[in-house]
Amino acid sequence: xxxxxxxxxxxxxxxxxxxxxxxxxxxxxxxxxxxxxxxxxxxxxxxxxxxxxxxxxxxxxxxxxxxxxxxxxxxxxxxxxxxxxxxxxxxxxxxxxxxxxxxxxxxxxxxxxxxxxxxxxxxxxxxxxxxxxxxxxxxxxxxxxxxxxxxxxxxxxxxxxxxxxxxxxxxxxxxxxxxxxxxxxxxxxxxxxxxxxxxxxxxxxxxxxxxxxxxxxxxxxxxxxxxxxxxxxxxxxxxxxxxxxxxxxxxxxxxxxxxxxxxxxxxxxxxxxxxxx
Amino acid sequence: xxxxxxxxxxxxxxxxxxxxxxxxxxxxxxxxxxxxxxxxxxxxxxxxxxxxxxxxxxxxxxxxxxxxxxxxxxxxxxxxxxxxxxxxxxxxxxxxxxxxxxxxxxxxxxxxxxxxxxxxxxxxxxxxxxxxxxxxxxxxxxxxxxxxxxxxxxxxxxxxxxxxxxxxxxxxxxxxxxxxxxxxxxxxxxxxxxxxxxxxxxxxxxxxxxxxxxxxxxxxxxxxxxxxxxxxxxxxxxxxxxxxxxxxxxxxxxxxxxxxxxxxxxxxxxxxxxxxxxxxxxxxxxxxxxxxx
Amino acid sequence: xxxxxxxxxxxxxxxxxxxxxxxxxxxxxxxxxxxxxxxxxxxxxxxxxxxxxxxxxxxxxxxxxxxxxxxxxxxxxxxxxxxxxxxxxxxxxxxxxxxxxxxxxxxxxxxxxxxxxxxxxxxxxxxxxxxxxxxxxxxxxxxxxxxxxxxxxxxxxxxxxxxxxxxxxxxxxxxxxxxxxxxxxxxxxxxxxxxxxxxxxxxxxxxxxxxxxxxxxxxxxxxxxxxxxxxxxxxxxxxxxxxxxxxxxxxxxxxxxxxxxxxxxxxxxxxxxxxxxxxxxxxxxxxxxxxxxxxxxxxxxxxxxxxxxxxxxxxxxxxxxxxxxxxxxxxxxxxxxxxxxxxxxxxxxxxxxxxxxxxxxxxxxxxxxxxxxxxxxxxxxxxxxxxxxxxxxxxxxxxxxxxxxxxxxxxxxxxxxxxxxxxxxxxxxxxxxxxxxxxxxxxxxxxxx
Lengths: 277, 293, 449
Prior knowledge:
- The complex is a heterotrimer.
- Chain A has helices at residues 9-37, 41-44, 58-66, 69-100, 106-118, 121-134, 141-147, 149-165, 169-177, 182-193, 195-211, 214-219, 227-232, 242-262, 264-271, and one strand at 101-102.
- By secondary structure, chain A is mainly α.
- In chain A, helix 4 packs parallel to helix 7 (141-147).
- Chain A starts with 8 loop residues before the first helix and ends in a 6-residue tail after the last helix.
- Chain B has one domain: MetI-like fold (Orthogonal Bundle).
- Chain B has a two-stranded antiparallel sheet.
- In chain B, helix 1 crosses helix 12 and helix 8 (187-196) crosses helix 9.
- Chain C has helices at residues 3-16, 31-35, 51-67, 78-90, 105-110, 117-123, 139-146, 168-173, 183-194, 210-221, 240-252, 265-273, 287-291, 331-344, 347-355, 363-366, 371-374, 378-384, 399-414, 420-438, and strands spanning 42-48, 70-76, 97-101, 147-148, 151-152, 155-167, 200-203, 277-283, 302-306, 318-325.
- In chain C, strands 3, 6, 7, 8, 9 and 10 form a 6-stranded mixed β-sheet that branches. A two-stranded parallel sheet of chain C has the order 1-2.
- The two termini of chain C are 37 Å apart.
- At the A-B interface, helix 1, helix 4, strand 1, helix 5 and helix 6 of A face strand 1, helix 1, helix 3, helix 4 and helix 5 of B.
- Chain C: Keywords: Signal, Transport.
- Chain C: It is found in: Periplasm.
- Chain C: InterPro entries: Bact_solute-bd_prot1 (IPR050490), SBP (IPR006059).
């Protein structure tokens, strides 16, 4: 974009101050989380808080090698990736149908899909528990993968429907004239054009699933325990191992942050995909 | 936009799997919840399970605790959301101004951090940073001469704290959406407007706002839904306390169903919440977001 | 195992690490033989993240080695442990051992989720250790933690009594030569004298969870002669005595740090450990945290006494966990589970458990020579367990629900959002509604707490 207007020092300085303030505001909690994770218990609980101290990796050693946080992170990863893939596989064709086909009850159906995103997990958690127990799948990753579809599928459908609708219909018509079926049009013409929406909704699905807590604590115990559920388990009112809690938190947050930063371009572009055409 | 009529088979081929799966994971448990909501259904007393018609609903609808939690949830929504939108808009406008490209790129990346942070971790972080004694926030307030504040132990402060973290986590989200909206304003229109007036407000009102509306609607829909669902951050920060100060609706339902084990009442609460959610989504989606298929 | 325990125990462990594994008494019973048919069985159990469980984890490999039974542990925070187990039992899940806080026992027993010890004895006569010696448990503890309606279900495993931990240096400086004997003295003398210069006399953990109802609310009503229920199971909270206790708590808050309603155990213990308050009333098991230089700054100043007495006498807080066999386990699992419970709570292992940071409920271990020197909390603990109120908190199935009510209004009361009288009234009304719904008032259920 071309620089417009005056960019004198007078107008630049406040901008620099403001931008730096915003940046610090966003980043400072992370700084504090990471430094606390490098403190011993006595340092973490000292008053006033210490900014300069001898860092230790003891908390990380403990949570990784004694408490098995690593294993829960692998669980989180498997669950988040699988549910995202599944949401895309199921959601894209559905979104295509909603965007391209005429059928009765279409807008109600679309509304129902989207509403699932709005439902509080607390509404479904216990019924899920009893049902899942009944079919014997408690404490398995499969259950989380399926249940996370309740919020991932709507996101995929929402964003992709809008994207498909923004693709000129002429392309389809030309293909139909050439004798292509709907599946071919979907696969070879529309889907490639809708990749931005697929990417964005995948990123969202992954982040939501990685961060999910409530279903994870209700439906898993040992084998399928996810990382956020693990972090909660240190919250015993009995002692407050701040260092360990923050070490676990750092381990949970870092991968998703790296992922989000790498994907931030798509993320920003896609945030408004539904809204801005 | 044209759509085509297709055979039932093709239609189902595209949309059937999604419907089936979502019905299995979304509707089946819901039916079960409705079933339990019509029963005396206490996990610690299942022997006395009994069909009691709408007694649980009668209880919920006349229960002060339920409406108080509902009220708190809406107070949170109407306080946090305007702050998020206002701050988000300011940040977006700032980032939209030309110049300082490098700093602005860094800031944009920084904005992604809060959004991606695990919600439960935000609450844990809040416990550490806002502790009355060893919290860094009170230390920093001390530097500018403010006496330590009891953030977590005082009902009003705890509520403010929840708002603070909600704002911290979701203002960047608003900023990024609105920024994307601003970039869709055609350059020549914006430049022409700036030649005519120096007032940024006029430009915002008359030129940029129309381009921001869709983003604002998306923000409102998502933030409303997420506020009604808000659980993780508060659960790890205050567990709804002190007293009832931060007991939002999802925490109340969790407490009723998972700690008092009264699944009948909890299901009724959940169904009422669901009804409210659906009505709100209807209003938002059908009125604001008219372009649904 | 965490480091602070290790250092605290280094002295004593060395003497006793020799596992009493190959124990075989005159009767010819041996663990290895009794366990033989059940080798290879896996026993699922819920543990908490507390010192007693860390201690048990250190000991378990020896048990597994000797019996071939595998112990599969799920660690949970206390606040989730009840919910997790209830859901598991309702759904006929795979837990084989129930971990029972004393307030859960009525709940578990009434729902037939746990097996009475007599039924185990009858079904598996060969696995009962002849040296089990139930009489060796403190009677109050066995009765409160392990029994319901006269039937023994569980054996006391992780045991607590409320104790007064105090900073003797602070007390001396203020001119006291000993800890407060009565709550009255706390209010009239110790409170005013010790609350100054940003320090406070006392911290009463009152966070809105079980801590509020057990540590804060119940702790104050009993010494003043109050109780939750009267003989007809009607609320006794609006009685003169109960209100006296609750008003006392309210008034005492002037000598407690700001934001006391956000204090859980960790905060209260840390306040004493950092020298910010002069005394706290806490569970015996916090001794290791308070004595360890890695987590406590008060060092030699730490001293321990029984809780102060009220007009109605000394009624220290009582809490703790027993282990019982879960009904849903299959036969092999039941037998294996019992062998484990019996072993971990046995007389023989009591000393090792104590050395590793646990608190056994075996009388015999506390009679050993020199035990009070190694474990300064022992005299106060033994005294507290001589007499007490098993129904300190009612132990019936409805307690968790009632506890939620107490937690809500109890904290609102402390915050001044409602008056003490109003709060007691509301808790009473809601408590009676819960009991009514459960059928206590129409004769459906015996009045046991």
